[in-house]
UniProtKB/TrEMBL annotation:
One example GO MF annotation: aldehyde dehydrogenase (NAD+) activity
EC number of the protein: 1.2.1.3
Annotated protein name in UniProt: Aldehyde dehydrogenase (NAD+)
Family: Belongs to the aldehyde dehydrogenase family.
PANTHER family documented for this protein: ALDEHYDE DEHYDROGENASE-RELATED
Residues forming the catalytic site: 263
Taxon lineage: Bacteria, Pseudomonadati, Pseudomonadota, Alphaproteobacteria, Rhodobacterales
Organism name: Sagittula marina
Alphabetized UniProt keyword annotations: Oxidoreductase
Amino acid sequence: MSVKEIFETMSYGPAPEQAGDALAWIVDRGARFGHFIDGAFTEPGEGFESRNPATGEVLATLTQATSSDVAAAVDAARLAQPEWEALGGKGRARYLYALARLLQKHARLFAVLETLDNGKPIREARDIDVPLAQRHFYYHAGLAQLMEQELPGRAALGVCGQVIPWNFPLLMLAWKVAPALAMGNTVVLKPAEWTSLTALCFADICQQAGLPKGVLNIVTGDGAVGEMVVNAEVDKVAFTGSTEVGRKIREATAGRGIALSLELGGKSPFIVFEDADIDSAIEGVVDAIWFNGGQVCCAGSRLLVQEGIAEDFHTRLKARMATLRVGDPLDKCIDVGAIVDPAQKARIAALVDASGGEVFRAGDAPEGCFYPPTLISGLSPADPLMQEEVFGPVLVSTTFRTPAEAVQLANNTRYGLAASVWSENINTALDVAPKLVSGIVWINGSNMMDAAAGFGGVRESGWGREGGWEGARSYTRLVDDLPALTPVEGFAGEKVEPVAVDRTAKMYIGGKQARPDGGYAKAVYGADGSLIGQAPIANRKDIRNAVEAARGAAGWAGATAHNRAQVLYYLGENLSARADGFAALIDRMTGETGGRAEVEAAVDRLFTYAAWCDKFEGAVKPVPGRVVAMALNEPCGVIGALCPDEAPLLGLVSVMAPIIAMGNRAVLVASEPFPMAALEFIQVLETSDVPGGVVNILTGSHAELAKPLATHMDLECVWSFSSTDLAAEIERGAAGVVKRTWVDGLARDWLTAQGEGRVFLDAATEVKTVWVPYGA
Ligand code: NAI
């Protein structure tokens, strides 16, 4: 018999993992669980059953939290927070380290419990979920240790409300809890109702680690409990889950002045070029879509194969599908386990049944809550299954001809979480990676993650990064709390001075001076009541035109950092040449004498951001394995901003400069009471080689323009420094397309360092992590 024949005749025998210890852990606790509040488990109350999806058996009964449970958890967290923060980073590091050690000591218990509760293959729980959760606590013990040194001037936010999903129950807990605790926050966590057991087991080890009571609180229950956590008196909400719920949370937190991070769904492309190593790429597909049964937010669920190899690729993929084993998740030989719950299975089946595509399966799944690996082809890009997140072992496939078409198809989605690119040609791979609209790109790989590397998306996949310094920073605030903004009013006028030659101030859209669509203008008076000029009143349509012009100027993102710096220096030079005129205009508008200082600071600010253009560096993350993980600071796209009212020129420049320095385009609405300096600045823009559409300047009512900016589909971010309080309106409006917002309502002294620096650069960029494995 040849070796080949021996292999062909070999069949796998089951290799079941023993579940005894995990089941004993449940039974020891009476198989009924309360919440974990203030360092102790509460008495179990009314609740619901948690089942093993693979068998349908009841594992335990969990308690549905009431509003008083949630309030008690938040109170405990609030009470514990000052002392926890006062321990200092080094003091907290010891606890995080102890938690990591305990997770390691009880690794098998956690892995088996996770598999029983969630249905994922034990191989994955054992080799991926639990080790990565440990790694998160180790890594963040280190960040806590270094916090004071490396994040000077930053402090904890306070109490964090965290709501997590069911696909990686323990790992998601680690992603949320470790950075929050490391930075000195306390936490109220709500695990998903289908999978709360490992969180409760984690509470157990918090007790063993002697974690001070109230530092971590866990309340169980369904979405209603999640809502209560979101609506409680917390300082930050961190959510991972569906885009639909993420949107609701954005609405519920709008205007409350609390931090929010959203890690939502995806429909990530998996692009195979014809020069790819096909066997590796096939294994990549297996990891991308059949890992955790496709119940992964960053699952490579859209396969795009270059036409020349499509037939061969599909043939080989189908052959590989025939070797995937679906079944008992506790069996160490199983590739695809159970679907988390019959409701989720029904959802997957309904989406697939309605697809109308050509469905391939290499075999049936076993009876019960299992769904077989499925490949669907023949769909058009707009088909629901090409666009909707299935969250199951279902891959849709299509073909492309050229790299440009691959990029176009890949980006044809409302999501932007992850993408895989397969090519043996480094030029192709590194050319395509930056063009993909996504927070993560894996080259010749998929689903690579690590605590040191940022994870998170763009578009409707949410915002904010988890992991790395960038993730930890989002659990902190600047210590020097700035006062709240107070409304700034313009002046009324009585006298109308005749002017020798009438000069009509216009707005600036697409590199051209533009009249307002509505044809209205507002008289702007100086502090002495004299007429300075008429400022156009922009409306929704002007916003649309400006956004369109900005979109058309996408080439700016591709300009070199050196070139962008040159343009900013040139702006500074040209502004400086007109310093006298601007200083006089500002003094006249504001009735103060700070015009000269403002102009000088504005020139300086342009120089500062010119300097930053090629110095706001990315990083190479020291992740384990033979892989380079590059964190690139990418521009967000088009940023709309309501400029500060109180500093008519310096405010505009302080907002515009970081936006364009990082390669974004800007739609700016000038100071409402003092708009004339911004209109005058158009002439500086016109003479400084700023490509048309990169900066667009409108004037008008902040209150009226806030909504069109917040709800516009093609704007990536909205900032507001307006003295009119528009936080609720902007944050609620932005929920629709899950747009990033920056509205903190704080009064900055624009003349000082408060008005510039890394905070602005961070807000103007998104971190894209590009993973490039290596090895001959
Ligand atoms: P979900 O988004 O409803 O649930 C995630 C978490 O949010 C759970 O803890 C849930 O109890 C909680 N929750 C639900 N409604 C809430 C509300 N109004 N306010 C606060 N918290 C709330 O996800 P679900 O229903 O379990 O799954 C539905 C679909 O969502 C999946 O098929 C998948 O497409 C997507 N999903 C995406 C995830 C991701 O990692 N991006 C994770 C889970 C689901």
